[in-house]
Each structure stands twice: as structure tokens, then as C-alpha cells.
Amino acid sequence: MRRMAPDHGQAEAARVFASHVAVWDQQREALRAVARVCRRQARALWGMPGVDPRAAALAAQLAWEADAWAQRTYEVEAALQQGEGTRG
To answer: Which of 33, 30, 27, 34 is nearest to 73 (CA)?
Structure first.
């Protein structure tokens, strides 16, 4: 049977939280890169003759959504940090 550490698992929880923050940082970076590519694609499509404007609008929408998801990772991280402060 596994025994609880004297700190009631807080050190392990801090390590797990730190690893989650590192993953969120990577996700944010990737989402921001996706948003940049989609914005470039939207600008290129808007400038091309004969291209359906809905294609450019879709690329712009995807850029907006990628930015929104990247921002959401900050909000989740902040909410979890506040939750960490209320324990113990």
C-alpha cells in the first residue's frame, strides 16, 4: 500500500501541474502558429481572382478559432492556479 507523503501529495501535485503548464505552453505556441498560417492563407485567397470568397472567410475563421483556443489555455491555467491556492 502506498503511503501519503508528509506534505499530503502537494509536491507531486506541483510537479504534475508544472508538466501541464509546459504542455499548455507548447499547445499555445502551436495554436498561434496555426493562426498565423491561416491568416496568411486568408490574405492570399482574398487577393486571388476567381477564388470563392467563402474559402478566404473560412481561413479567417480558422485563424480566429486557433487564437481563441490559445487564449483559453491561459484561462484554464489561471483557473487551476486559483484552485491550487484554495487547497490545504
So the answer is: 27
